Amino acid sequence: MDFSFLWQGIMSITWQQAVMYVIGGLLIYLAIEKGFEPALLMPMGFGAILVNLPLSGVVNQFSAGIGETPGIIQWLFEVGIEASEAMPLLLFIGIGAMIDFGPLLANPKLFLCGAAAQAGIFLTIIIAVLLGFDLKDAASIGIIGAADGPTSLLVSQTLKSNFVGAIAVAAYSYMALVPIIQPFAIKLVTTQKDRAMKMPYKPQGVTRRMRILFPIVVTVIAGLVAPASVALVGFLMFGNLIRECGVLSTLSNTAQNDLANLITLLLGITISFSMKADQFVRPETFMIMGLGLVAFVLDSVVGVLFVKVLNIFTPKNKINPMVGAAGISAFPMSSRVIEKLGQEADSQNHLLMHAIAANVSGQIASVVAGGVVLQYFANLG
Amino acid sequence: MSENLIGALEMLGQGMLGIFVVLGVIALLVVLMGKLGGGK
Description:
heterodimer; A: mainly alpha; about 70% helix; B: mainly alpha; 1 helix; about 85% helix; about 0% strand; rod-shaped
């Protein structure tokens, strides 16, 4: 009897696959022990091991005796992400249903913080190009700075980047690391006095009509300026309209909980298809991880500096510069970071509601950023 | 200057302009809706 089938698998493991088992294990460790975005990093880590087992049955395989056999993770990726971007888009319905734009509607000036804090995306694209990446890959890497996993995934996949797996890992890892990255970046460009600056919070009434009109207005304006953003913005705002209309509370709850959980459950393990050893274990992956960090730092730094400049022109209504850094989309981690830093500087300094307003503005700005990047390539013809 | 770098610089200009225009117009409309007030 031939027993070679027993060690056929272990003998065909490549060193790159062994590296992926370590990376998968590391992601699982970070998710479970450190609590870093566990809903995504844990499935991605487990998936990284699954897709890198020799002749893995979760990806399509061809054998002489049977022919082609389909793999479930490859099918999920091809149908749910590659063919239609359905998974990240459907997740936006859930995210939109979760967000309360009330604090932002009460202080519309903070919309500008969300816009400014997207600069890290475009500055990182320039750095990536200078490092030798082609323009589409550079744009896909820069969009890590959107601090918004589904947007990063959608843009990099739409642009057919060669580095979707590394980009997804960077986007979700750094989102989990916002409480470490942002204090460092903010302290680079603020003084103790800046951080202690108080902002009075005057909650203004936001009418129900305004809350209902808001998602429609956002979708139409974003769609007219950057039509490529309509899918991203539209699904985000559709979720928000379900939340705010007041007559679809069951659907709103379903979108916030069941839909978001179901997509999240499948999204992580589906992304792992792009973490096959031959695509992931290469020098560019390290560069992408570094560039992702640069994008987050630049977002925060530009956000702070923008508010400092804005304050020169509005001396009677100053904004704490740290609130500018909350203009990144990492919600609600970034808001909590600003509140904590404000209280460290002065225990009576409460910035949470202002930071939340800038943070949800960043959520809109990041999907618009994804749209304008796609629009740029669409216009190239 | 390489073609890719020119493209990246164009994207910076167009991208930031696009984002500021979209969010700026939305902010103005929100202010306008607030001023018009009314409703529930």
